[in-house]
Amino acid sequence: MKIAVYPGSFDPLTNGHLDIIERSSKIFDEVIVSVLINIDKNTLFTTEERVELIKKVVEPYKNVKVESFDGLLIDYVKQKNSNVIIKGLRALSDFDYEFQMALMNHKLDSNIETVFMMTNAKYSYVSSSSIKQVAKFGGCLKDLVPDIIIPSLTNKFRGD
Ligand code: PNS
Predict the structure, then answer these.
(1) Which among 24, 34, 50, 90 is annotated as catalytic?
(2) Biological process GO annotation list (predicted)?
(3) Between 20 and which of 6, 88, 127, 134 could a Cys-Cys bridge form, CB atoms 3.0 to 4.6 Å apart?
C-alpha cells in the first residue's frame, strides 16, 4: 500500500490545495493531509478547526485522511509508514522555499522523496494569505476555497 503525506498549514485550505489532494488521491493508495500544529505562528484557524474543516471537504475521497502533526515532518512520515511527501508548486516564487525544504528533508532521511505537483493553472494565483485578505475585506470567496469553508471564514472576520 503506497501512502503519501500532503503536509501544510492549510490556514485555510484553498481550492488549489484541494486540486492537489484530488489528483494525488488518484496516484496513491492513501493520502494523509497533515496539518502542521503551528506553535510559533499566528493562525486564523486553530489546528482542530482546520482538521475538522478539511475532513468535511475531503469526505467524498475515501482514500484521503486528515490529521495534525508537530515536530519534524520526516519523523511523522516514517511513523505513517510512508516515504512520500507531496507538495504543490504554483510559480517560480515557490521554488526556492520548496527546494530548500525538499533538500533538507532529503538530507535528514534520504529514503523519503518529495514529489511536486504543478498547480492547476486556474489556481496558480490562489494562496491562503491572499484569501484571508479577501475574506477580511468582504470580497467574494467563491471558487477560491471550497464552499463548505466560506461561512467559517467569513465568521472569523465578522465584527472586525
Ligand atoms: O503550508 P506551509 O506552511 O508551506 O507548510 C510548511 C510545512 C508544514 C510543510 C513545513 O513547515 C514543515 O514541514 N514543518 C515541519 C518541521 C520540519 O520538518 N522542518 C524541517 C524541514 S525544513
Answers:
(1) 90
(2) coenzyme A biosynthetic process
(3) 88
